[in-house]
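Researcher: Please predict.
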Amino acid sequence: MIRRIKLLISIPVAVWDWQVRLARKLFRQPGPGTCVILYYHHIDAKDRANFARQMDDVIRFTRPLSITEYDKLSPGRHHAIITFDDGFRSVFDNATPILQDRKIPYTVFIPTGFLGDNPNWINSSEYRNKTGGVISPEELRELNQDDKLLQIGSHSVSHPQMPDISPEKAHEELKKSKETLENILKEDVTFFSFPHGEHNEELLKLARSVGYEKVFTVEPTLLYKTNQYAYGRVNVEPYDSKWEFRLKLLGAYRWMPLASLLKRKLIGKSRKALAGLLLYQGGSETFFMVPGPEVTGWLSLIFPFF
């Protein structure tokens, strides 16, 4: 139900974009180049055919770019960058052959503390087993040498909720993961993907100080500019429906961060207003409403998916 609502909201966004492109074509104004960065996690063997169809759409509707080519947006063209978080073997087993066959560049972000091991941040044992675990250092080195389409980035050491740890620990997660990967690959690692996409301004400064050229989050974004430091990405799954995937690929889900911000602001304002609401006053005692989920829950009914 939630996925269907997201899709329905995204359709008019896509229609608007189509109208803008048509108008620019009529007036011979190509407009700026655009780009969507997609990110996956696990690719199951049963989803290989669906993933292949998605990559066919990437070729059909966009110009695929390597993550190192983020600054090469051609005017009037739409581009896509393919990324994977977590470094699961399932990606290399089931997605890599499809990407190689179509010559689509891709980037994998690795949590170095789990190289050759199972991801302990995943609660579902069934899902954890399907991933095949994180690839080993030896496999990573071999794959990086053999596959010219592959780019490796860091995904921290222990895959923590980074805003919840100390600045010292965050600095260690950023620096140590970078150094580990560089020792394995014998090349610079300059891209970082925040675990769970969670970050703040202090973490961005730390990442820059450690030497990351660009960092990546999980807010759906349609990119026009390439001079920023943090880049949002669109979450996709190999089992997304055809139109769901195409709308994501075209950047039509970019309304979601704005809706999330609106929800947070509305909830914050409603809590402040309700906190001062007098419910009952008798004698020397005054009772005030303390708003909680039961009071502001109507906002979650309006925005259930942000």
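Model: The two ends are 14 Å apart (CA to CA).
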